[in-house]
Design goal:
With about 475 residues, the chain is of the alpha+beta class. The protein contains 14 helices and five strands. Helix 1 packs antiparallel against helix 2 and helix 9 packs antiparallel against helix 10.
Length: about 475
C-alpha cells in the first residue's frame, strides 16, 4: 500500500510539472518562470528523497517476509516430497503384495494340477485286478471333481496320494488281494492275486489255473497262462520264497507273439486274388524243379573226347568213331553221331546237319521256361490287382462306418498288402530262376556250337592241323 501511495504522489507531481510547463507559454517574465521551475524542481527532489527513504524503510521487512515465505514454500515442498514417497511406498507395497498373492495362487493351482494329474495316473496305472481294492478312493475323487468347494477335491486328491504311497510300499514287500479273472471261454474264475513289484500273479481257488496278469484292458483281469507251471505261484501265494517266471513287458511280448500271423492266416486274409498267385507260385516252383533237374543232369564232353572221334575218322575207322560219339553224353553225343554218319558229305552240308541238331535241342531245353517268365511278370500284376480291390473294400467300409475304429479297416488293408507281398515273393524268385536257367541253357547251346565247329573244321583240315582250336 505504501508503494502505491508513493507512486500516486510521483504522478501528482508530474501533473504539476506539466501544468508549470504549460504556463511557461503564457506571457510571464522569464525570471518568474525560472524561479517557479526551480522551486518545483526542489520540491520534486525533496519528494523523491522522501519516497526513497520510505521505500528503503519498507524494503527490509518485505525482504524478511519474502525469505520467510520462501522458507515456508521449501518446507511445504519437502513435506509434499515426503508424502509422495510415502504414497509411492504404499503403492509399491500393494503391488508387491498383489504379485505375491498371484504367485501363491499360481503355485496353488500348479500343486492342484499336479495332484489332479497324479490322481488320473493313479487310476490309469492300476491293474485291472486292483480296481476293486481302490474303488473307494477313486470313486470319492470322481464325486469331488463335481463339488462346488475345492476343499473336498483337495481332500480326495490327498487320499489318492496316500493310497498311492501305500500301494508303492506294499509293492516292495508284496501284497495279496482277492479278485476274478476272465478266462478264454468268457467265464469268471475267482482266486488270489499276489502283487510283487510291477508283476501280479494269479492262482485260482481250486489251484487249477494260474499265470501272470496281462496288460490287456477290459472289465476283468486276464492272465498269461503258464500251463503246468503253477506250483511256484501256489507256493508264492502261501508265502514261500520261490523262483518265478517274469514278464517285464507286462504281457506286451506275449500279445505280439500271439498276434503274429502264420502262413495260413495270411493266405486266408489275402482275398480272392491270392489264389491265382499261389497257383502260379506252385506251377513255377514245379517247373523250376523239373527244369533244374533236367539241365543240371546235362554233362558236356571235353575237347579231347571230341578230337578222339575226329582221330578215328581220320584213321578211316567210322564204326569206332560212331561208338565213341554214342558214348558221349547228350545232347553233344547224338549231334556227333549224326556228324560221323554224314562225315563223307561236303563241309557245308555237314555244318547244316550239325546246326539242325542244335536247333532241335534248343526247344527241348527251353521248353516250359516261358511259364516261369510269365509267372515273374503276372504275379506282381495280380498283387497290384489285389491291392486295388483291397483299397476299394477299405473305402467302402470308410463310407459305411467312418474312420472312428481303425480295426474295421484292417481287413481291406490286409488284403491289399498281403496280395502285394505274395506277388513279389512269387515274382522275384521266378525272375531269378528264369535268368539262371536261361543262362545255363545258352551256355549249353554255345558249347554245342563250339563242338560242332571243332568237328567240322577238324574234317576240313589236314592231319595234325586240327589239333588246335
Amino acid at each position: 500500500m505504501r508503494i502505491a501511495a508513493t507512486i500516486s504522489r510521483i504522478l501528482a507531481w508530474g501533473i504539476v510539472l506539466q501544468v508549470s510547463v504549460n504556463t511557461v507559454a503564457q506571457p510571464t517574465s522569464l525570471e518568474e518562470v525560472r524561479q517557479s521551475v526551480q522551486s518545483d524542481l526542489e520540491q520534486s527532489l525533496l519528494t523523491l528523497a522522501t519516497v526513497r527513504e520510505e521505500i528503503a524503510a519498507e524494503k527490509i521487512p518485505l525482504i524478511s517476509e519474502l525469505n520467510s515465505t520462501e522458507g515456508e514454500i521449501r518446507e511445504l515442498r519437502r513435506e509434499a516430497a515426503r508424502l509422495q514417497s510415502v504414497r509411492d511406498s504404499r503403492e509399491l507395497s500393494l503391488i508387491d503384495l498383489t504379485a505375491s498373492i498371484q504367485a501363491w495362487e499360481s503355485e496353488n493351482l500348479y500343486i492342484l494340477n499336479l495332484l489332479d494329474e497324479y490322481a488320473n495316473r493313479f487310476q490309469s496305472n492300476l491293474k485291472i485286478s486292483e480296481i476293486a481294492t481302490h474303488s473307494e478312493v477313486t470313486e470319492a475323487y470322481r464325486e469331488s471333481s463335481n463339488a462346488p468347494s475345492g476343499l473336498a477335491a483337495v481332500d480326495a486328491q490327498l487320499s489318492i496320494v496316500n493310497a498311492g504311497m501305500d500301494r508303492v510300499r506294499s509293492a516292495f514287500g508284496g501284497s495279496q488281494y482277492q479278485g476274478d479273472i476272465a478266462t478264454q471261454d468268457g467265464s469268471l474264475r475267482g482266486g488270489t492275486f499276489t502283487r510283487f513289484g510291477p508283476l501280479v500273479y494269479f492262482i485260482s481257488d481250486d489251484r487249477e489255473l494260474g499265470g501272470i496278469e496281462s496288460a490287456e484292458e477290459g472289465l476283468y483281469a486276464r492272465i498269461l497262462n503258464l500251463g503246468d507251471e503253477l506250483e511256484p505261484i501256489t507256493q508264492l501265494t502261501n508265502g514261500i520264497l520261490v523262483e518265478l517266471p517274469a514278464d517285464v513287458s507286462e504281457g506286451v511280448v506275449a500279445q505280439i507273439s500271439e498276434s503274429r500271423d502264420n502262413l495260413y492266416s495270411q493266405i486266408s486274409r489275402g482275398g480272392i486274388w491270392i489264389l491265382p498267385i499261389l497257383f502260379f507260385a506252385v506251377l513255377a516252383l514245379s517247373i523250376s524243379i523239373y527244369k533244374a533237374a533236367q539241365i543240371l543232369r546235362i554233362t558236356l564232353p571235353t575237347t579231347e573226347q571230341v578230337r578222339g572221334v575226329l582221330n578215328k575218322l581220320r584213321q578211316s575207322e567210322p564204326e569206332e568213331a560212331a561208338k565213341l560219339a554214342a558214348n558221349l553224353p547228350a545232347p553233344v553225343g547224338p549231334m556227333l553221331v549224326a556228324g560221323v554218319n554224314n562225315s563223307t558229305e561236303s563241309p557245308q552240308l555237314l555244318e547244316e546237319i550239325l546246326y539242325e541238331n542244335i536247333l532241335e535241342t534248343r526247344p527241348t531245353l527251353n521248353r516250359l521256361l516261358p511259364v516261369i517268365a510269365t509267372t515273374a511278370a503276372v504275379a506282381p500284376l495280380l498283387g497290384l490287382l489285389g491291392t486295388v480291390t483291397g483299397m476299394i473294400n477299405t473305402f467302402n467300409l470308410i463310407a459305411i462306418f467312418g474312420t472312428g475304429d481303425s480295426r474295421l479297416l484292417s481287413s481291406g488293408i490286409s488284403e491289399a498288402l498281403i496280395t502285394t507281398e505274395f506277388g513279389l515273393i512269387v515274382a522275384i524268385p521266378a525272375l531269378l530262376i528264369h535268368a539262371l536257367l536261361s543262362r545255363r541253357i545258352k551256355s549249353i547251346l554255345g558249347d554245342m556250337e563250339k563242338f560242332a565247329l571243332i568237328f567240322t573244321n577238324g574234317l576240313s583240315v589236314p592231319d595234325g592241323a586240327g589239333n588246335h582250336e
